[in-house]
From TrEMBL:
Top-level taxonomic group: Bacteria
Keyword DNA-binding: yes
Protein name, UniProt field: Bifunctional helix-turn-helix transcriptional regulator/GNAT family N-acetyltransferase
Gene Ontology molecular function: any one: DNA-binding transcription factor activity
SUPFAM superfamilies listed in its UniProt record: Acyl-CoA N-acyltransferases (Nat) (SSF55729), Winged helix' DNA-binding domain (SSF46785)
Organism for this UniProt entry: Hymenobacter cellulosilyticus
Keyword Transferase on entry: yes
Length: 316
């Protein structure tokens, strides 16, 4: 079975690369028809320079949608073949201005006629297809600019993984995982403090028996995430001891735990959730903002040295 038939749209990038190689190979034959000593990949840069003289390298890259480095490489090759000149600008010595050389100027009319013929041939080619590839490419580029392929794949993956993650209530046998996951991230950035050890070594006494709750995330048979709700008052719970194993990060498990914790707090009658963190923990703070938490300065004095930001989420 053909590779592309087997994989289908999953191989779209490879299929386009094969089409590009086919088109590039045939484009070389087109240049040979016109006896033009020219590489097909030079054309976007050369055409832009010829059409709009004295552009900066960055402006050329912007107009054709290529990187600055890629345009610079092509310009080096064009300059080597005496088709363009690259000179420092008079007003700004840091920016290079590109223009055609006499050789490039002499070549330009032939390339213009060739481009006209190629356009007519390509338009005829498009009429032979049921779907207009040129228009479809424009639609595809627009869709990808609105939402990247990686973002789309991540959403599908996260949705699939979400169905494989189980949110569990804490049981005594979970204490080693509860402590291990939290100790791992705390010691990576800070140090374990006395307040940490009390809650991690004795969660029943310091969290559960005081009206709190602990949730865990199980994925592929392993506990990979934890978070706790510590009762501060009849109306307020602290979201604390949130941790996700490095091996399971990036899978949306932290968000699942956070959402489950908010739902549990509502079930417990909470009107407010409170948390303490540190501003160096960027991904964690992004998660808290996604859950709806906002910075507050009205929290109590923290028992943790590492705390330099307090946040709250009003539930009622």
């Amino acid at each position: 079975m053909d590779f592309f038939e087997q994989l289908g749209p999953a191989a779209l990038g490879s299929r386009l690369r094969r089409l590009n190689e086919q088109m590039t190979s045939q484009a070389a034959a087109v240049y040979a028809l016109y006896h033009v000593p020219f590489e097909p990949r030079w054309f976007p840069v050369f055409y832009t320079v010829a059409s709009q003289p004295e552009l900066h390298v960055g402006e050329i890259a912007e107009r054709i949608g290529h990187t600055h480095a890629a345009v610079s490489q092509v310009l080096k090759e064009l300059a080597k073949h005496d088709l363009v000149s690259v000179q420092r600008g008079e007003a700004d010595q840091r920016r290079s201005i590109v223009s055609l050389t006499p050789t490039g100027t002499e070549l330009w009319p032939a390339l213009q006629q060739q481009a006209t013929d190629v356009r007519q041939a390509t338009e005829e080619l498009l009429t032979e297809t049921r779907h207009n590839l040129w228009l479809a490419i424009g639609e595809m580029e627009y869709a990808l600019s609105r939402r990247s392929l990686a973002t789309r794949v991540k959403a599908i993956r996260d949705q699939r993984i979400a169905g494989q993650v189980r949110i569990l209530d804490y049981a005594p046998e979970h204490q080693p995982a509860f402590k291990g996951l939290n100790a791992e991230w705390i010691e990576r950035y800070f140090r374990l403090e006395e307040a940490d050890l009390k809650a991690l070594d004795h969660p029943d006494e310091y969290i559960l028996q005081r009206g709190g709750h602990i949730l865990l995330a199980e994925y592929e048979g392993r506990i990979v995430g934890t978070c706790a709700l510590i009762k501060m008052s009849d109306d307020t719970y602290e979201l604390a001891k949130m941790a996700v194993s490095p091996a399971a990060q990036g899978l949306g498990i932290g968000l699942r735990l956070g959402e489950a914790a908010v739902a549990k707090a509502l079930m417990l009658g909470a009107g407010r959730l409170y948390l303490e963190s540190n501003t160096k923990l960027g991904p964690a703070l992004n998660l808290y903002h996604k859950l709806g938490f906002r910075k507050t300065v009205s929290g109590p004095a923290s028992p943790y040295e590492r705390c330099n930001i307090q946040m709250e989420l009003l539930l009622k």
